Amino acid sequence: MDSDTSRVSSRPSSPEADDIFLSMKKSVGFSGAVSSTQSDSPPDLCGDLRGMSSADEDSISLKMQYKKDRKLLSENELQAMRLKINSRERKRMHDLNIAMDGLREVMPYAHGPSVRKLSKIATLLLARNYILMLSNSLEEMKRLVSEIYGGGATGGHHAGFHPSACGSLTHTAGPLPTHPAVSHASHPVHHPLLPPAVSTAASLSASGISAVASVRPHHGLLKAPTATAGPLGSVPAFQHWGAGMPCPCSMCQVPPPHVSSMTTTSMARLASDSK
DNA sequence: TAGGCCATCTGGTCCT
DNA sequence: AGGACCAGATGGCCTA
């Protein structure tokens, strides 16, 4: 939300576009927003009729007739409807942008007024990889905990390690390694910008980071992320736990192994496309 | 100046 | 029928 104000503020997010719409229709004929493909379909009724030949006017009137027959609306009614639809669409896109900002806020990248906002595509890719990274980290932590507390025996799962594990790590909002900057100290983790399959410690410098960072390599938006509390910091606590009962906590709900469809090649392609 | 990113308009389609 | 969703087109702003 506050990660970038310069770029957002440079463009009015919610201009009185309906006024623009109206003024454009009055003066220019509003031909700008009509695409070439759209011109094949029944055109809008806002076309400027000035300077048209009679044939053009006939064509327009036919198309208008088509549209009127179709909707049985007057031009004013159609115009009002169009404004209403436009307004709805703007609101929808604004809501989408708000959600995108909310996603940016919880993403591990450098926030701040001096840092350029992540693009939408970068936000989505980063979010995806972040989720995969967290899932992998969770799985790895689970494995480590099971090693420490008795080899992960099937029957003695909870009786063996769970109380302390869950109590100290997940369920009481313990310091889960929600971010590479935090968790690097204990074990290699997957960088959120990387596809987990390639984001081992050995390959961190090889491909992934540079590939994704090159989406916008010159703005510093993907610089070393800050070690802020991640979304897992608010994992609710669970009472533990009846023998033989499956635990619903996040520690125990191991996500199925992901097969990342976003490979390094695709990420690199994205990067190259964005160049 | 080219390219990236974005907001907006618009028509079509699907859903309720 | 109306609203939500989607994709294409267009033009503006910004940066390298």
Automatic annotation (TrEMBL):
CDD domains named in the record: bHLH_TS_OLIG2
Entry GO MF terms: DNA binding
UniProt entry keywords in alphabetical sequence: DNA-binding, Nucleus, Transcription, Transcription regulation
SMART domains to which the protein is assigned, alphabetical: HLH
A family per Pfam: HLH
SUPFAM superfamilies membership: HLH, helix-loop-helix DNA-binding domain
PROSITE patterns registered for this protein in UniProt: BHLH
Occurrences of domain BHLH (ranges): 80-134
InterPro entries membership: bHLH_dom, bHLH_transcription_factors, HLH_DNA-bd_sf, Olig2_bHLH
Keyword Magnesium: no
Protein name: BHLH domain-containing protein
Source species of the chain: Coilia grayii (Gray's grenadier anchovy)
